[in-house]
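[Meeting: bench + compute handoff]

Bench side (C.D.) handed over the final construct sequence. Compute side (W.E.) agreed to return the predicted structure before the next meeting so the bench team could plan truncations. Sequence as handed over:
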Amino acid sequence: MRRLGLLPVVLAAAGSTVAQTPSCGLFAGWQQRGESRLFEGDNLFEYMDGNSEGYLVYGFVRMKGVTCTKGSDTLVFDISEFGDAESAWGMFLANRDIEKPIEPVGTGGQAVPRKVTFAKDKYYVELAAESDRDHTAELREMARIADAGISGSTARPEPLAWFPPEGLAGGTARLAPESVLGIRLLKRGYVGRYGDAKAFVVTEESAEAAKATFARLKARFEGAGTVDFGDEAFRAKDEYLGNLCMFRKGRRMGGYANVPEGQDASALARALAARIPDL
């Protein structure tokens, strides 16, 4: 991610509702350079060159940041606040490398040679070194220190446990903040990749709302046939989503799409439904 030339906004007074303040003083030998930064809502574009939309779609509230120096090294330390812990975790998953493991810091994090990121409660933390050398070990230790200074839960969103672990790309499903599977009816939910196939779970506010959405969902697939599990289910074949099977269970909907020929979409969806607890 390229940052625009650090356009500073002075932090709000101590009585502000802005939470969790990054500080260079957390790290031995590091000093702050320039003013602290505060970005709220849409003005994040002033700081990020074309990347602000990736934050806003997850319900970005504000970002606080500082630039730190130690000798010839420079570090950018930003803490972004989101509307809830689910959204902050979604932001982390959207930006991590699925080929690399999730590390035990905060709710989960990841370190690469010049950057470490992690989520904790409703916060997403980024520590980025500007020099070309490998800072992995140092950044991991900085993340551990920063984690200790951030209060809140480290519990991961419950729906992640519903996805079968066998064959799940990256070891976890990720939050789709809008248009799950590219379907506007499915406004927000989780998607897990299993090779070409995609599993999803969406939660509505009530069983009645889910029932209404599910009826509209089924109607968009011509020739959808009824399947007997959950509260209701159907299977179909679609030009874009291929072989699919979707179900409703209380106020939750889920299923599989893009299931390759030779695999049973209904059996996969039935197994997913069995993992979802009754409300």
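W.E. noted at the follow-up: The chain has two domains: 24-148, 158-275. C.D. will use this when planning the next construct.
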